Amino acid sequence: MSIVKPSTLPGFMELLPKDQMLFNEMRDIIRENFEKHGFLPIDTPVIEKSEVLLAKGGGETEKQIYRFSKGDTDMSLRFDLTVPLARYTAEHMNDLSFPFKRYQIGKVYRGEKAQKGRFREFYQCDIDTIGMGELSLVNDAEFPVVIYHTFKDLGFTDFTIHINNRKILKGFFASLGIEDSMNVLRVVDKIDKIGEENVLSELTELGVEKKSGEKILDFIKIRGSVDDIIKSLEDLKIENEIFLEGLDEITQVIGYMRDFGIDEDCFDIDLKIARGLDYYTGTVYETTLDNYPNIGSVCSGGRYEDLASYYTDKVLPGVGLSIGLSRLFYQLNEAKIISSEEKSLVDLLIIPMDDCIHEGIKLLSELREKGLKVSVYTEFAKLKKKFKYADQTKVDYVIVLGEEEVKSRRYSLKNMKSGDQVEVSFDELVEKFKN
Amino acid sequence: MSIVKPSTLPGFMELLPKDQMLFNEMRDIIRENFEKHGFLPIDTPVIEKSEVLLAKGGGETEKQIYRFSKGDTDMSLRFDLTVPLARYTAEHMNDLSFPFKRYQIGKVYRGEKAQKGRFREFYQCDIDTIGMGELSLVNDAEFPVVIYHTFKDLGFTDFTIHINNRKILKGFFASLGIEDSMNVLRVVDKIDKIGEENVLSELTELGVEKKSGEKILDFIKIRGSVDDIIKSLEDLKIENEIFLEGLDEITQVIGYMRDFGIDEDCFDIDLKIARGLDYYTGTVYETTLDNYPNIGSVCSGGRYEDLASYYTDKVLPGVGLSIGLSRLFYQLNEAKIISSEEKSLVDLLIIPMDDCIHEGIKLLSELREKGLKVSVYTEFAKLKKKFKYADQTKVDYVIVLGEEEVKSRRYSLKNMKSGDQVEVSFDELVEKFKN
């Protein structure tokens, strides 16, 4: 028989068990935090009708999508969890309570050019709160709280949630006579990547006067404490209505965040945050790890005016955010911020001699009955091979079970790290390893 | 703007949050049990190279598969978790410890004809133990133990794990002069669906003599306790080597199962279990719910001689089993064996009056700080609408927070089921709802 080389497609992440355990641990922490904050789970299909998924259409999305037909059906793999959420909310509207708080953790697909750290299949962990007709600003403040607790629980101490409000930028641009703010926003959003000079020249290309361009640069460089920045913005005395609305919103959101008791060190206002996506309309967030700025934003989102206008004429404003878990995991691993260790799911491995396998299983059952995490090696093999397995699986303790141990019910407990051995009774074993 | 009707493709399950919570609870119990028994997690891509996934090729699989191209790449969605496991094990062989015990819980895809209770996207929950070159029969006994604990934890009390060994059937058929046992096995496997008469006539079509057909029927109808059946099989004095090997194996497996302490009421030997798949070579399992025989097998699997012969020339024998969770969930729900209730993720909802929202959030934070599961309604709305939300989300207790409560720090706690109200202090709240 001819052998097919076993391999995955390029751009598809696949982990060894030890890394998978670490990945799952992170995914569990994220899920727990989402649930703790009252977000309900949904799990939409990976495949949707192309007509539904591409209702908005256009742009990069359509090029990257995995789209195919079977029979007469034109279908596509989801490329994010937001479009499926819009479809879900519109479809099941009458069965949901609003504000509808949902989370979804799942794989999404983008046929991007394969490159280091970019994946064609990756996990997104999304939360969104959707209002029916309206949704209070308190929700804009709750999302940083969820990020805060999630990243704390993931073990990060130094991270910053950067907050801005698009209306502030849009209103400021309008006060300079710039009406097409979307393109200007996109240029501004790139400043950390392309630098000030390039921002200026791209703005000029868009027809922004040099003086206005410089004012924009000065504006987005306003620094200081949250209160300082709010004060500076007030002091600008800009009379544009949208600007003032944005300023009022961010002031309220910061106020609510303080009510939530979020650590002042963990957030700031950053006026250059704009987010590339055009559907954000108010508050926007990005989150960076203070000591690893190169990783970029690890969690982003914002407020949008209308989630599902392609599927319903009901107006559904919302706030959402997304953690790109596969990418985050990859980057943390690459930067050695996290590292997986081979670790055993059990605390103790019973190694029975070949003629004591029955007794090994019985001991296993008795110990499991007591709630211990224990396993038994049941292959017929030389003792050396059995110990090699113990070594490889990184179990901490081992008992070798021979006729004598079976008779005496006393066991020689070997610490695999130190090599120390102590003789213990069944009860002492239980005592040592329970919990 | 024209509206696209929001809908999913036929054959794709999608649940409301309350059902999703129940589904996730079942999935968590399964995962916990798999991990408790020492199975390590893996998570292979949903998309694989067609060349790899279809290395075996042929049959129904190829017709049902979702296969498509992007650029030059011919790819397919996985139709089970076994072929990806084979590829994974062969690819990462040098980084794995054998016996390699892994679990995978994930969605698989089959473009079957859509029909009630059959899904085109569904969850499988698989465990397999893979040996390098050889694998002891103890593993065949461990799988029923995992099923046993999993189904107990899922809340089932009456279920039966049916065990058989294909070698017993194959050897018995050979003793009747039937060499092509595979087709006969497939016919026998259908007996519960098509009945004895049809089995007899299909066997005749295969060229089996009527007398042999009747002997087969008598054979697979042998009933009794596990020990009775083993005795009956011994008493047949069949001298066929394969038969005797099968009989020896099942005797050993039952012995090991007893060592594991599995409840005798929960398993039997059922000689008509053959499993349709041709790759099982020894022990086979099916599991049925005693009070719901119509649901059929809820968990099946068995022993195979060589997992990954298409990808490596190393011989990798294994034992595996699979729970088809989507189908199981659907059937349990349809039969009203399980039923989801709208239930709240929190124990208590704070409903602040419109002018006390800040104080509502502060109270929320203080209570969360104490570990309580609590939420706050933060939309500006009439009290009636706020209570409607409390009703819809099925939260058990509510506090309305007005100026007076903020000042006095005493709260009127309303039981939403009984309508009773009691006045409580902050500490009394904490006391009542902690844990």
UniProtKB/TrEMBL annotation, chains A, B:
Any one GO molecular function term: transferase activity
Full protein name: Histidine--tRNA ligase
Oligomeric form and interacting partners: Homodimer.
Main location per the UniProt record: cytoplasm
Catalytic activity field: tRNA(His) + L-histidine + ATP = L-histidyl-tRNA(His) + AMP + diphosphate + H(+)
Pfam families per UniProt: HGTP_anticodon, tRNA-synt_His
TM spans (from-to): none
Species this chain originates from: Peptoniphilus porci
NCBIfam families, per the entry: hisS
Xref: CDD domains: HisRS-like_core, HisRS_anticodon
Compartment(s) of residence: Cytoplasm
Statement: the UniProt record of this protein carries the keyword RNA-binding: no
EC number of this enzyme: 6.1.1.21
Keywords assigned by UniProt, alphabetized: Aminoacyl-tRNA synthetase, ATP-binding, Cytoplasm, Ligase, Nucleotide-binding, Protein biosynthesis
GO cellular component: cytoplasm
Gene Ontology BP term (one): histidyl-tRNA aminoacylation
